[in-house]
Every structure is written in C-alpha cells, then in structure tokens.
Specification:
The chain is an alpha+beta fold. It is built from four helices and three strands; from the N terminus they run αβαββαα. The protein has a domain of 90 residues: Rossmann fold (3-Layer(aba) Sandwich), CATH 3.40.50.410. Helix 2 links the parallel strand 1 and strand 2.
Length: 131
C-alpha cells in the first residue's frame, strides 16, 4: 500500500448509524371467523393463536418497538366508515397492554367483514384519483 493511501485511511473519520426507534400498529381482525380454528379439527381458534403470536412478538421486541392496537371491523362505523377506537395507543411500553386487550376481548362481530367497505374507503379516500 502506498504511504499516501495509508495516511488517508488512518485519517478517515469513523461513520456511525443513528439509532432509529420503530413503531408498529397491530391491526387485528376480530370478525366472528376468528372464533374458528384455521384448519378443520384444530383445537385452538384463530383468535387464540393470534393472542399467542402477539405475546411472542411483544416479548421478543419489548423495548425495541413501540406497539399499538386497532381491531376491525369496528362496531360503531356507518357505511364506508371505520371510526372505532384505537384500543392501545402507539407508544413505548405498551406490550402488556396490547396482549391484555386481545386476551380480554372475544371476536363477537359484526360477523361479516364486508369487502365493499375497504373498496369504498380506498375509492373515496384522499389517495384515490380516478383515472
């Protein structure tokens, strides 16, 4: 190696990446189909399996991700409106609250998740541009 290249290498300033904190909003289906096992003959419902998966992910990423929770379909919204509550606000330290809210809730409906609602929202939403 040439002496000038070695000198440049020794003078180089180290580069460091910024620590970036990530957030995840969990959007969970709570329609009546979540009361059934994913496969015929299964012993656990989709809801129970979702709860176990959330326990694992919130434990594995505790302190590394901010968690929040929304469940759909909401039980208050009119046509083309999903105005139900945010069950757990997106913030640090919400892992236990997400799991507790899911484990203390049962999917009771509405029992049909109408595909027309998301299509309607996407058609009427701010990002829609006919064309």
């Amino acid at each position: 190696m040439r002496p000038s290249a070695l000198l440049l290498l020794l003078m180089a300033t180290p580069a460091w990446a910024d620590d970036c904190h990530s957030q995840i909003m969990i959007v969970l289906d709570r329609s009546c189909s979540m009361n059934m096992p994913p496969k015929p003959g299964g012993t656990q419902t989709k809801w129970e399996l979702a709860g176990l998966a959330l326990q694992k992910i919130t434990t594995d990423y505790s302190g590394k991700l901010d968690f929040g929770l929304i469940m759909f379909p909401d039980q208050t919204g009119g046509n083309c409106l999903q105005d139900g509550p945010i069950y757990v606000n997106l913030a640090p330290g919400q892992e236990a609250n997400v799991v507790m809210k899911v484990m203390s809730t049962m999917p009771t409906g509405p029992c049909v998740t109408d595909i027309a609602t998301p299509r309607c929202v996407s058609r009427e939403g701010p990002s829609f541009s006919p064309g």
